[in-house]
Amino acid sequence: MATITVLDKVFESYIPHEKIEAVIEKMVIEMEHNLADKNPLFLVILNGAFMFAGDLFKKLHFPAEISFIKFVSYSGTQSSGHVRQLMGLDESVEGRTVVLVEDIVDTGISMEKVLEYLSDKKIKDLHIATLLFKPNSYKKHFKIDYIGLEIPNDFIIGYGLDYNGQARNLKDIYKIVH
Predict the structure, then answer these.
(1) What are the Cα distances from residue 172, in Å, to 66, 102, 132?
(2) How many angstroms separate the most distant Cα atoms in the chain?
(3) Number of other CB atoms surrounding residue 110 within 10 Å
(4) Contact (Cβ atoms closer than 8 angstroms) between residue 92 and residue 64
């Protein structure tokens, strides 16, 4: 199995890009069934979800818009437990169907903060889409409408996910070895 070193950590190949693409295709089919007539706004949570959102958005075959917000919670390989908003909405979401696009939901703390941020925005219909979900780490109770893959509680990088700002540009996903 291929390994790479990023800063002071070693990672091994975990999810190849071909599998990521297949998972996104499956998610798009579900979304087309549920969202095609709603002109949804895909609200991407930066930084990690940018690659997933770009690939997802390119595959949609119905009218939709995309925008970005930015929240941070990680330091090194651990969630800090403290979530900060760095960039908010530029447009109104009142009366809209909104799909929050996240790279990974683990504890759910970050997503909960995003949901709190959006709670007074009078959104008509809110959906959550995540490429990766860690059910063994999840501590919240909100519904995640679209889940690409369920994974164990390993620290991962690549395909938008980083370790101290590094490795977002990798097309495959890698998990930490040590």
Answers:
(1) 24, 17, 13
(2) 49
(3) 23
(4) no
pLDDT tens by residue, 12-43: 999 999 999 999 999 999 999 999 999 999 99
**DSSP one-letter code for 163:** B
The secondary structure element, H or E, covering residue 122 is: none
pTM of the model: 0.91
Question: In Å, how far from its chain's centre is CA 166?
Answer: 17
Q: Strands of the chain (E only): list them.
A: 3-6, 9-15, 41-46, 65-75, 78-87, 97-105, 125-133, 146-150, 156-157, 173-176
Kindly state the tokens that stand for 89: 């909405």
Domains in the chain: boundaries: 19-76+84-155
Report how far residue 170's alpha carbon sits from residue 159's, in angstroms, rounded to the nearest whole number: 5
Q: Which residues are catalytic?
A: 106
Q: Would you identify the CATH topology of the domain 19-76+84-155? A: Rossmann fold (3.40.50)
